[in-house]
Amino acid sequence: MTWTAWENVTGEGLTFTDICYSKKFHEQLGGGVARIAVNRPKQYNAFTDRTTSEMFRAVYDASHDPMIGALLLTGEGEHFGTGGDVEWEQWGLREAFLWRYPPNRLPRISRKPVIAVVKGYCIGGSHHLAYCCDFTIAADNAIFGQNGPRVSSPADGYIVQYLTRVVGAKKARELWMLCRRYSASEALEMGLVNSVVPLAKLDEEVDRWCEDLLKASPGCLEVLKASFDWEIDQLPQPGIISSNLYPDWFDSPEGKEGSKAFLEKRKPDFWALRKAEVEERKKA
């Protein structure tokens, strides 16, 4: 069975700088597949608000195209992505990033099944984007992990809690709290991905999964996806818990230290800040 070549999507509102958006169609089965690839390889495909805004428009287009049966999310170049661009976030733009078009919400707003196609780094926000997709197919060079506590970026709500459904509570806490890195084979063992193949076979494996989806009733798949996604809708939105515990987190010394240390390419010293805070309280 064969596919047409990928063709870039054009039209009103579909001119992009941070992503590549394309579609191809199956010559025997008739339906097609859309692909969104973050196109910031020099930044390891880290995203900003522009990136997620463009991704939202592409997801909306694919979701409303009756001839599209599946949506692929991936990254141009060697990596899937490394989450939010810390250099961009330092300018105090986190609110727009978190609340306008949160990337991990994109798989939920798609009516079509979403496959994360992962190679290289899949870290931080890109990591929870991948596990919020309906399926995750990984190359054998993929590396998975979270970054939040390392860079003073607290996460809460469904993007944390949903991982317990994927890998179980103990492993989810390990992933989020310890910020370790995991190989593709380790990710497969814990249920974080559906399939792992050699990098050279990644596109072939993705095509095979897409063909299986296109053989099914697209309407039934939309109903099934909405049913599975309903579970996510019952979980709290990001920011609710952290804003109650630490309403001024990103203006606090600890909140600034992680990203500052990252940009300065040094290890953060969180406990020195805590110690200084204790000393100040003793003086009061």
Nutshell version of this structure?
This protein is of the alpha/beta class and about 280 residues long. The protein has helices at about 50-65, 85-90, 95-100, 105-110, 125-130, 160-165, 170-180, 185-190, 200-215, 220-235, 240-245, 255-265, 270-284, and strands at about 5-10, 20-25, 30-40, 70-75, 115-120, 120-125, 135-140, 145, 180-185, 195.
Explain what you see:
The chain is of the alpha/beta class and 284 residues long. Helices cover 43% and strands 16% of the residues. It contains 13 helices and ten strands. It has helices at 49-63, 86-89, 94-99, 106-109, 125-131, 158-167, 169-178, 184-190, 202-214, 218-233, 240-245, 253-263, 270-283; strands at 7-8, 19-25, 32-38, 68-75, 114-118, 121-123, 135-139, 143-145, 182-183, 195-197. The strands form two sheets. Strands 1-2-3-4-5-7-10 form a seven-stranded mixed beta sheet, sandwiched between helices. The longest helix has 16 residues, at 218-233. It is elongated. The chain starts with 6 loop residues before the first strand and ends with a helix. The model has no long low-confidence stretch (mean pLDDT 90).
